[in-house]
Specification:
Chains B, D: InterPro entries: Acyl-CoA_Oxase/DH_mid-dom, Acyl-CoA_Oxase/DH_mid-dom_sf, AcylCo_DH-like_C, AcylCo_DH/oxidase_C, AcylCoA_DH/ox_N, AcylCoA_DH/ox_N_sf, AcylCoA_DH/oxidase_NM_dom_sf, Mycobact_Acyl-CoA_DH. Chains B, D: Residues 129-222 form the Acyl-CoA oxidase/dehydrogenase middle domain. Chains B, D: This is Acyl-CoA dehydrogenase. The complex is a heterotetramer, with 2 copies of chain A (368 residues) and 2 copies of chain B (403 residues). Chain A is an alpha+beta fold. In chain A, 51% of the residues lie in helices and 16% in strands. Chain A has helices spanning 7-23, 26-33, 41-47, 66-78, 85-96, 105-114, 220-255, 267-295, 301-326, 336-349, 354-367, and strands spanning 119-122, 138-142, 145-156, 163-169, 175-181, 187-193, 199-209, 215-216, 257-258, 261-262. In chain A, strand 9 (257-258) and strand 10 (261-262) form a beta hairpin. In chain A, helix 7 (220-255) packs parallel to helix 9 (301-326). Chain A is globular. The two termini of chain A are 26 Å apart. By secondary structure, chain B is of the alpha+beta class. Chain B has 3 domains: 7-91, no CATH class; 126-234, Butyryl-CoA Dehydrogenase, subunit A, domain 2; 253-402, Butyryl-CoA Dehydrogenase, subunit A, domain 3, CATH 1.20.140.10. Chain B has a 4-stranded mixed β-sheet with strand order 1-4-5-8. Chain B has a 4-stranded antiparallel β-sheet with strand order 2-3-7-6, with no helix packed on it. In chain B, a hairpin with a 2-residue loop joins strand 2 and strand 3 (152-160). Chain B has 13 helices and 8 strands. Classes of the chains: A alpha+beta (368), B alpha+beta (403). At the B-C interface, helix 8, helix 9, helix 10 and helix 13 of B face helix 7, helix 8, helix 9 and helix 11 of C.
Chain lengths: 368, 403, 368, 403
């Protein structure tokens, strides 16, 4: 057994950390998000090989493993990075690599890997669970070929993407994946930001024509893999965010004085911090263990649900504790604390929240 | 035992309902629906204040001699219940519940004459200048200073968490007038009849929910009249304690909390459960709702016992008990709201939240307010004496009432 | 609104308290339960009018109201009294008073009121909920008249009763109540003690003949009233137990020293005590409010469920806190603390536990 | 990263399984099923100890030179897993995990020679004399005294929570040999080679669960040889800390916890939900089970990371983290057990719980143990350093591991 990152992973993490410390500190991020600063972060990520990393080698990527994705995503979470690595590469790019290499697909993958093209995964329809059983978007045979009709919500990076990967049901109710250029006729995009500042979009597909070569029929397994990637990467982001909250709150409690002594010396605060540390240790252990399981191809959907549920539940506990211990200042937009809370809450809401995954676990485990 | 309000109050209830059903403007109703904080949207709420004033109902808790309604506790509970049932914005508390009653108790005749009418009518809004960056839970550590100079004080320093200071035209505050002795000594309570004195600078603070509700106020040699002092110099701590008594002895919280639970129940009937079907029929939701309902019911029972004058009302820990119960129930309800809203709670919709913006929300009105309310309500366990401080106080009064 | 006990109730409580303080202190109770001391408690309760109190005046009782039952039961809880007031009088006696006064019924009621006869309510069949939908005991027409067949569990006072009140389903699945002498042929009793020392029994009814005059058909409302009485009385006992735990634990924390100071001066203990007080205040307020509702005949099954659920949940919180704060000594059989914990847990298990009642509340409230 | 045990260990696992499937007697198996405490039923468990000793497996954590197995951490985990899966009674810990390893580290050659063989073989059982009525969480406040007299000490005072003292024939204890200076100084660690010295009086204490597991031990001028002293006089506090290191660095707890969860799952398939149908299909049960499963899984992940030598293992707070996590998980599981057992958890069945009593329980075997286990497990957050003390310790080590 070995749950440490490899030397290569550690090196990559070190250089990514350095870059983000310099270029994506909280104030820089604030300016970037307010549109007050040009961000060259994406191209730096391309240059560092991080954008190509999650893609298979056969597609020009670096063949990144689950733990590679975790290694990077955890640092994204620490820095609240909202660059579209997740929607474009980890989700869309990796999923397209499972398509038959025909039509526009290979080109899309290549362009995603170079960072020139951005993809987005249009899947959510409102249930919040990610479960394919909730799909109602239709992929049907039109007069001049296949078309898609339906509406998707909260599509990460959906407003900036050049190619959209869409989940849909065929006329025989089979789960399919299909990809279309974002500027295809009949696509209507409503852009907004999620709670944590991530650019997202609601997207309507009004009988949009689809290139038959850009369809994967019988995509259950591919969708399951996609969702596992999404949940694993998001969980890693959440654990990264928790680490920062843990560290900054412990520091704050050690220096902030009230009643003539550091507030961390009050047992009520000290014990809450202890509980936060317990929560953090559990969440991070599950992240690393399940990343290792995924590396060996043995992470079940139950394992992924455990991870997603734990980071949702434990992340909320840590973030709410961090706000409470910071007091009034923790309630402001000016301090990072609240942004981490919102990041963790947003992650919890994506691809199945705590409650959903706990029930999934219980369902599987009770009958096992 | 008798569980009923005085039956004669049913006519009163009808009178209240008739007014509340007809008087509020659309903007006021919109403000009520978009209330995501203890502090309802300012302009429309002040408009509602003035309408209630015109009806004679702006100050249910004030005695008649000061223009109050003279209502009994039961009448006030009924009014509050009906007010909340209609999702109307609660009047802003600082004048009516805090500084007004304080002046009635401790103000000079001149201070009463000068300030009470504007509080009652809704002409004036008062902000509270208590906390400072280094004096939060430990309020007595405050250092913003006032130096006597002729008939004036000269104020230097900083206040923070001055709610709605950027909207207020009046301010009450605690200043340090003496640094010797215990830190609770040497504090003075001041009324500022303007918030635009030369040298005063107000900076709004954006909150977690994206709204500027709190402010910082900076004082740079601000000269204000000593006539605004309430009580003696250096005795402001006891004035503040008197004010706290009014703040905490105020209105019941359970009607507001009950209303949130009702909104959750209604929304759950329209929402879909993770595993299909209406959320309201989902067993897991039902269990969690059942627990919330039980907790809300117990809180109502506590408040009704207090209202009835049961011995529980005399428990010295009751203000702290009520504060912890109501703030933590609000937080639980806010979490349940985001849960019912599901992913519709995730869009950031600051414009749609503004009263009169005309911007359609992405989801339904319930989902629009769920997350801002959750975020804002994180403060409920921090402000007005953090819940850690309240639990300290409760732990000093552990005896239980036998009667 | 008025939620104080009346002057009469206060007087009765005062004299009952005095009697129990003298005769039923913890050590006396221990000896009584171990069979090492004769108990004259029951006859004292008769003499004080407490045994006759819950019965209607028309049956020779004192016409006790819901709040009368609460006033007494709360003190029973404070003293961990296991005398059979609940099974014999509050349940069996009051229910029999709703029967047609014919056959042996009036005599049974009279004897229950004088304490000469004890009754028990044989209802539980295993689900623990008290719900009539879980009944499977049959009341059927035999060759020589009605008979009962079925098995009941955890019947409070079932081993000491002279008359058994049985819930059963008729051949048309209607809910019935029937009463039989405990020595009737075909009754098999297995006596044991519940967790908190209450004498209980499992009872088998092997085609037991029933006097037709001792049957109430269409007993849904009577059963509902019976269950409401049971839950209200048990809730009052639980709140009485909580009060003692609260007081003794606060005292203990104020005097027990570790690390050179009272343990109650440690914030972790102080805040846990504060939470226990919050729990107590909620539970007691709900008890008094719902007693007042019941006095006016307006307590719904939802209200009763709220009360039962709250005392179960909050009682457990207080009792577990009390054990933890007492530390090792709280884990022993020698201190009352653990006995109160077991009393509260037993109460929670009778006629629907916390979980059941929370779901009942949610079911009713969600669709209301 | 690599999640697997060394593949070569599969053969080892098979060897373990083969023995555990065949060696235990019926009484041993019954004792395992009736284990409702950290301390399994004494006689049958000591019998199992002796069988394991005969197989050479009594001390998985001991080095080979002392008769241990010399197994790796992974082998020990596998052994523990398979042992728990079969509901076998865990060997009593005081000798094997506490005093044995301590003697290997700090005992004299004579003490090792005298005591280790009996610990290993199961001939001896050791009770721990640490706590006193006034020295619980604050152990250093202990006052039971030992006065040097020739080659002996004369002991006076009282110990409490001496687990199974009435079954033990040996005792290790802390005594006060000096009252000057800091209270941690002046404590001495002693081994008593008998528990029936003149002047020693052992009184069993009945616990919440009705079982006499703990005892009080009174010392009235008890004369014991100084040869039993471990370490120097007055330096027993550091000896106790060394022992604590062995106690806490011991076996993984997750196999035991996983086994409890498995028992709950199995019982739920046979139980009926409040609203009908199998409990295992009830959505509310499933959600709560899902949460328990997630917590158990995370705890397993923590222990496996530690086992693998991950940097987490070096966190100075890890012993406290593990103690809080494992004790509170045990308590959660015990509550779930009583919930699944339902009203069948309510009968008091002390006789049926005794190994070899032959008394049939009223319900099923799962329900029989649910409540006693719940009651006994309330102590898990009290003993071995209360969880309040553990949280104090954790709060002094809040840094998190980055690697």
């Amino acid at each position: 057994m070995n749950f440490e990152f490899s030397d290569e992973q550690v090196m990559l993490r070190d250089s990514l950390s350095r870059m983000l410390d310099q270029r994506y500190a909280f104030e820089s991020r604030r300016r970037i998000m307010a549109g007050q600063a040009e961000t060259g972060i994406w191209s730096e990520l391309v240059d560092m090989g991080i954008v190509a990393m999650p893609l298979p080698e056969a597609c020009g990527g670096l063949g990144g493993s689950a733990s590679d994705i975790v290694a990077i995503s955890e640092l994204f979470g620490r820095h609240l990075v909202i660059e579209p690595l997740l929607p474009s590469v980890i989700l869309t790019g990796r999923a397209l690599a499972r398509f038959d290499p025909a039509g526009p697909v290979p080109r899309w993958i290549a362009d995603i890997g170079t960072g020139a093209l951005r993809g987005a995964f249009a899947h959510e329809e409102g249930s919040g669970t990610g479960a394919s059983s909730t799909l109602s978007t239709k992929l049907y045979e039109g007069e001049a070929g296949p078309r898609i009709r339906g509406s998707k919500k909260l599509v990460l990076g959906g407003g900036e993407a050049g190619v959209l990967l869409i989940s849909a049901l065929s006329e025989t109710k089979a789960v399919c994946l299909a990809a279309v250029p974002a500027d295809a006729e009949g696509i209507e995009v409503r852009r907004y930001r999620a709670l944590d500042g991530r650019p997202v979009a609601d997207i309507l597909f009004h009988d949009v024509a689809v290139d038959r070569a850009a369809i994967m029929a019988g995509a259950d397994a591919a969708l399951e893999a996609l969702l596992a990637d999404a949940r694993l990467a998001l969980a890693a982001e959440a654990v990264g965010a928790m680490a920062v909250l843990m560290a900054t709150t412990a520091d704050f409690a050690g220096t902030r004085e009230q009643f003539g002594r550091p507030i961390g010396s009050f047992q009520a605060i000290a014990h809450r911090l202890a509980d936060m540390k317990i929560a953090y240790v559990k969440a991070r252990a599950s992240l690393l263990y399940i990343a290792a399981l995924a590396d060996s191809g043995r992470a079940t959907s139950r394992d992924i649900s455990v991870l997603k549920a734990q980071v949702g539940r434990l992340g909320r506990e840590i973030a709410q504790g961090a706000v409470q211990i910071h007091g009034g200042i923790g309630m402001t937009d000016e301090l990072p604390v609240g942004h981490y809370l919102k990041h963790i809450l947003t992650i919890d809401g994506l691809f199945g929240n705590t409650d959903y995954h706990l029930r999934e676990i219980g369902r599987v485990v009770a009958s096992a | 035992m008798n569980v009923d309000f005085d039956p004669s109050l049913e006519a009163f209830r009808e009178e209240v309902c008739a007014f509340l059903d007809t008087a509020p403007t659309d903007a006021i109703r919109e403000a009520g629906r978009k209330t995501t904080s203890v502090f309802a949207p300012f302009e429309a709420t002040m408009e509602w204040h003035r309408l209630l004033y015109a009806r004679g109902w702006a100050a249910p808790a004030w005695p008649v001699e000061y223009g109050g309604t003279g209502w009994s506790l039961e009448q006030r509970y009924i009014f509050s219940e009906e007010h909340w049932k209609r999702d109307l914005p609660p009047l802003l508390p600082n004048g009516l519940i805090m500084v007004g009653p304080l002046l009635m108790e401790l103000g000079t005749p001149e201070q009463k004459r000068q300030h009470l009418p504007g509080i009652l009518s809704g002409k004036d809004y008062w902000t509270q200048g208590y906390s400072e960056p280094s004096a939060g839970s430990d309020l007595a550590a405050l250092s913003c200073s006032a130096l006597a100079d002729g008939d004036d004080y000269i104020i230097n320093g900083q206040k923070t968490w001055t709610t709605l200071a950027h909207k207020a035209n009046k301010m009450f505050m605690l200043v340090r007038t003496n640094r010797d002795g215990k830190k609770q000594q040497g504090i003075t309570f001041l009324l500022l009849d303007r918030t635009d004195y030369p040298g005063m600078h107000i900076r709004p603070i954006i909150g977690l929910d994206g709204v500027a509700e709190q402010c910082e106020v900076f004082f740079d040699n601000v000269r204000v009249p000593q006539a605004g002092r309430v009580g003696a110099e250096n005795e402001g701590w006891s004035v503040a304690k008197a004010l706290l008594k009014h703040e905490r002895g105020g209105a019941a919280h359970s009607p507001a909390i009950r209303r949130k639970l009702d909104a959750i129940r209604a929304a759950a009937r329209d929402a879909t459960a993770s595993f299909g079907g209406p959320l309201s029929e989902d067993p897991v939701f039902q269990r969690d709702l059942g627990e919330l309902e039980a907790e809300v019911a117990s809180f109502e029972h506590v408040e009704k016992l207090v209202l009835s004058g049961h011995a529980l009302a005399d428990d010295p820990a009751m203000p702290s008990l009520n504060k912890v119960m109501s703030s933590e129930l609000s937080q639980l309800l806010s979490i349940m709201m985001t849960r019912v809203a599901g992913i519709d709670a995730l869009p950031l919709q600051l414009e749609a939240l503004e009263v009169g913006s005309g911007v359609q929300p992405l989801g339904d009105p319930f989902s629009l307010v769920a997350m801002p309310y959750y975020l804002n309500t994180r403060a409920a366990s921090i402000y007005a004496g953090s819940n850690e401080v309240q639990r300290d106080l409760i732990s000093r009064n552990l005896q239980t009432v036998r009667a």
